[in-house]
Amino acid sequence: MIMVDLYVYLVTLVFAIEISAHSDSQKDIIRLECNERCHLQNETTNHGGLLCNSECIVNQCIRGCALWNEALSSNCSKVCDKFNANYISQSKLYCIAGCHDAITLYFQRIQFEIGPLPSPTLVPDSLFDKSLKLQWRGVKRKNFKYRVQWKLENNQENWQYCQKETWNNDSIIQLENLRPYTNYQFRVVLLLPWAGVMQLVVSESSVVISTHPSKVPPSMTPEIVRTIPADFSISVTWAAIPFPLAPILSYHLTIQEPTKEYPIFKVRT
């Protein structure tokens, strides 16, 4: 019994060391690649009249490259402030530049490792008036946050987050509180937080998915926007209901004189 417990302990210890080594290795790779860019930055900088000379620029940039991981939970300016208390403020700019370069490399490596995110698809027989299920065949990595966004058809820019989504087995997504009889497109978003700002990696958009019509008719009525009376006719213009919730078969127009309590004319369009 004692030997079994010892074996489990040793396996757990080795596993933890391997994870830590992999994480440290990634940090070193990013730092070293960032350091190489610092020399390029020095070559493209005009040193005339600057208080930070060539050696200062490279050293500050390398310092920023080493602080990138700490800056993920804060920002480059704060971590460079901490390590530049005895330096002139102008030199801090090169520390910030190196830190930003390293973080850019970090996000580029993540996107390269993840690759393109596939588009979600509709699960058969899951479509209703206010809900549906999507299947996403991408790999959902641990310690990363994924969300689903939607937009209306023919609206290229206005992506919004789904208010009620539930992930099942990392591949099936239940979406609720949708609008009936509406054409949607969906995409999966990987959120990479940095200093309170989300860096987004987005999938391809889904095909257009139309929710089923509602069994309850809309409570709103069309708004009359213009009336043009003539001798023997009246031209009436109204605004269509933007989200009718179901197909509109016809409109009924009723004309009534103010002095009478009953309609004098009805028309169906």
Automatic annotation (TrEMBL):
Q: Which InterPro entries match?
A: FN3_dom, FN3_sf, Ig-like_fold
Residues in domain Fibronectin type-III?
A: 116-214
Signal peptide stretch: 1-16
Protein name per its UniProtKB record:
ACYPI002213 protein
Q: Which UniProt keywords apply?
A: Signal
Q: What is the superkingdom listed in this entry's lineage?
A: Eukaryota
Query: Which PROSITE patterns does its entry note?
Result: FN3 (PS50853)
- Upper taxonomic classification of the species? Eukaryota, Metazoa, Ecdysozoa, Arthropoda, Hexapoda
